[in-house]
Amino acid sequence: MNKTLQILLAEDDENLGQLLSTFLRSKGFNTELARNGKAAFELFSNKPFNFCIFDVMMPEMDGFTLAKEIREIDKKVPILFLTAKSMKEDKLEGFAIGADDYLTKPFSMEELLARITAIARRSESANDKSDDTLYIGKIKYEPELRLLHLDKEVKKLTTKENQLLHLLVKNESEILDRQATLRAIWGDDNYFNGRSMDVYIAKLRKLLKEDPAIEIMNVHGKGFKLLIKD
For residue 214, what are the domain limits? Predict the structure, then answer.
């Protein structure tokens, strides 16, 4: 694995959560622990994570709901579920949501490490395109630096412009759910934040219009979609 994993761990069992986070940090993974699904979603919305480990049964928001929310804004981040259940139906639901793997409690730390390594390796080989430099049509985009390389200038994006554009690019040709995006970037999907997002979408359209192949579509009642014509 080339990149250090930034792991979001959601586990409501205090002892197990501490044990897991201490173990993962000892293996060199940057790990943040959330005590419930709601806290985990807030962390994911505000920090860059490239691996998720979620307990299924949690207060505030269970692991399946959390994964659904995250899948609305990031289709590719690997998700490993931890569960005390071994019911086939639960596993099917998890995989339907987009889980990469399942680990049934109790499990050994060595097994957890083996699963993480295997999933991360698969994910890395499936996504060779680095996030350091991306191309939107013909326009070069550096999300880490918040830079958009236009014909006549290099535009420094605001934090929210960058978050919104990055989500659109990561989910190219997929519908970016309006409410989930508002919760991820603005923290609340109320009317006023919705109007603010519409303004940001208009700004991004203006910036990207120099490449006619790029279109940010409104999908009525659902959200937005970034399309890049061949």
Answer: 158-228
